[in-house]
Predict the 3D structure of the following.
Amino acid sequence: MELNEQIEWNADLLCNFSEFFFGFKPYEYQKRFLNACLTSNRVAGKFPRQSGKSRIVAIYSLFKAITKPTSIVIVAPTQSQSSELYKKIRDMAIENAVISPQLKKCTATEMVLDNGSRILSLPCGPEGKTIRGYTADIAIIEEAGFMDDEIVNSVVIPMIASKKKDGQVIKIGTPWTRNHFFRSCFVDKNYNVISISYPEVVSAGQYTQEFIDEQRTQMLDIEFKTEYEAEFIDDMYAFFPLAVLENCKLNYSLIQTI
């Protein structure tokens, strides 16, 4: 399938695309995220849990894949985390009467379209050794708050090195420590940052206020701020300083099982 490349795509048109192809009208905060992806090559999205992050990333990924040949690599700390997002993309493609016939290859971790587009799901592991050498037009870092700086900087970002100014990096997830994700949100001015908190999600109808009130009573304050207000943890909220916790982490080789 080829869509007119002369179309100047914007968030409104992409929302119309979503409604037409998938029967879903993005919420306003999802629309902001789509606009960031359309206008910036560096995007950081801070999402609360279960706020529709996977769906909107899936819509953007499929839009890019069917409009022109695009290589998209999804990387997360574990294969299960990477596959969770990829599965959303795959299911939407398979269930769509227009996109499904274009699927040349569709496995549990890789999708290839007739136009040459490719969407691949990978785990970075403890050191990132298994994902070296891949090239991408778009690198999506899922659960960015839990991925080591060294892996992101030395393995993931180089995937787009040959794309010059056209390579795109999208970091998404719920905040955790002050790692590369934190710096992308608050220090690196190259990133277009979309920060979403629970009031917007409640207003959109994705959460109910009753659910939020329940979670507030059942979770520690630090947990609620992280999971639903999408705030990075600060030392003032932690029993152990984050620097101490970071120094306690150990990278080790995966054990091969028979």
